Amino acid sequence: xxxxxxxxxxxxxxxxxxxxxxxxxxxxxxxxxxxxxxxxxxxxxxxxxxxxxxxxxxxxxxxxxxxxxxxxxxxxxxxxxxxxxxxxxxxxxxxxxxxxxxxxxxxxxxxxxxxxxxxxxxxxxxxxxxxxxxxxxxxxxxxxxxxxx
Length: 149
Hints:
With 149 residues, the chain is of the alpha+beta class. It has helices at 56-65, 74-85, 101-107, 127-131, 140-148, and strands at residues 12-16, 22-24, 37-45, 48-55, 87-90, 96-98, 112-117, 122-125.
């Protein structure tokens, strides 16, 4: 996603993994500004372990920001550790991405995943864990009150 482009990741979808561990990216997210190179990284979220999937340009900007930092700069070391456990994803012709078994296992993703839009990225959540999320459906009024203070 380019800076200033519309936020493509909205909505919630449940998709099954195929026999090769591939997952289809929803067509609603594949519009203008969608990047076909993505980066999946482990994360902790409101429902426990999950994967966060960012456009490749997101981490390219972070890396560029630290390009002049010393190799042992703590910020760069932490980013390198994240790169070491993450995975670069490329959409195939059927709009699927293949996730490494280690990442799927870490996040508890066995047969399917709930894909949750989060604005500049999306989350891959284990379906049962996603179902335990508390709070119901937020309204725009509730969210804007909290966001704007």
